[in-house]
Every structure is written in C-alpha cells, then in structure tokens.
Design goal:
CATH architecture of the largest domain: 3-Layer(aba) Sandwich
Oligomer: single chain
CATH topology of the largest domain: Rossmann fold
Strand content: 5-15%
Length: 198
C-alpha cells in the first residue's frame, strides 16, 4: 500500500502502569497499517515522540486514527491546532469513540464546531486575565516581574560610579547583578545625561 493511502494509528496512556492493549486492538480493527504509541506521557502537551513519529510518517491522503479524542490530547485548542496542521497537509483525522472523521461532511462539521469552541475558550481566558489584571491594579498591586534594582540602589550606584573609586563591575557585583544589567538600568533612568558613562 502506498504511503499516501496509509492509515496510521496513535495510542497513548498517561502512566507506565496503564495498558495500551485496548486502544491497539481497536486501531487494528479500524484498519491501521502502523500504530505509534506513547506510554507514560501526559496529554497536556503535544510534543511526544510517538505522536511526532505518527504525524511525520503521514503524507497527503493518509489518515491519523485515535481510539478516543483525549488520547491525542486534553487541550481543545491544542487538538484544533494539530487537526488544522494535518488538514493543511491533506491528511485526514478519525476518532473512533466520538465518530469524528474529517473525510465526511459530518466530521468536518464537528471539527469546525470544535474550532469555534476553542476560540471561545481562548476568548474567555483572555477576558478573565484582563479582569484579573484590572482588579489587581485597583487593589494597588504591582504587576509584572519584580525590579532587580530599586531607585535607592540606582542612586547609590550612580553616586559610587561618579566618585570614580569603583568600577561598574565592582558596583554590579556588590548589587548581585551583571554589569550589563546595571548599565542598562542606569541608562533607563537617564543617569547618562548627568555625565556618567557606564
């Protein structure tokens, strides 16, 4: 059988103790020519050796088959992304338990519904994030990464540097930052305009 018409199966279990037998049997019954597996791999990310091998083996006209959708992954957005990638390469996708088959009109409709739900999920997350940031600002909470150097540290560094008795490297070392970081902070607060050349 030509590679282009291959039906590739993919099976995954989250722990080393779980068995792949049920999934493999179902995939073999579905006509999979080759089955790739991942054992002890989480479904929260999509970079897995078995999955990578399965998707790289498939070419246009081929089909990726899973026993159940969550074997491919647990993130709706991630699922849509990988299915879109397969579709752009002319590869079909089939999930046996959910009866999703992108070769059929019903399967394509299901995929588009999933894509819409994934976009809705992303919008909700973005809205919650914005609301959380707004609430934090109202409470007076400082957002973002903590500053490495305070204004007091910078004034002190400027004074020491301006005295000419210490080098930038010496001062940076005492403040537990790199000389590059100290120089950048001094530039950012316009100490260079006062005649300092860090």
């Amino acid at each position: 059988m030509e590679t282009a018409s291959m039906i590739i199966g993919y099976a995954r279990v989250s722990t080393g103790e779980q068995k792949l037998d049920l999934q493999i049997q179902a995939l073999e019954s579905a006509g999979c020519n080759t089955i790739f597996t991942d054992q002890g791999e989480t479904g929260s990310h999509f970079s897995r050796s078995g999955l990578d091998a399965a998707t790289s083996t498939l070419t246009e006209g081929g089909t990726l088959v899973v026993w159940r959708l969550d074997r491919l992954g647990r993130s709706l957005f991630g699922l849509v992304q990988i299915m879109e990638t397969l579709s752009s390469r002319g590869i079909h996708f089939r999930s046996l338990t959910e009866h999703i088959d992108t070769e059929s009109s019903g399967g394509r409709l299901m995929f588009h519904m999933m894509a819409a739900l994934a976009e809705f999920e992303r919008s909700l997350i973005a809205e919650r994030t914005r609301a959380g940031l707004t609430a934090a600002r109202i409470r007076g909470k400082t957002l973002g990464r903590p500053r490495l150097l305070s204004e007091k540290d910078l004034r002190n560094a400027f004074s020491r540097l301006n005295s000419g008795t210490e080098t930038l490297n010496d001062i940076a070392c005492s403040l537990k930052v790199s000389s590059r970081t100290l120089s950048r902070h001094l530039k950012n607060v316009n100490y260079r305009n006062a005649g300092v050349r860090p």
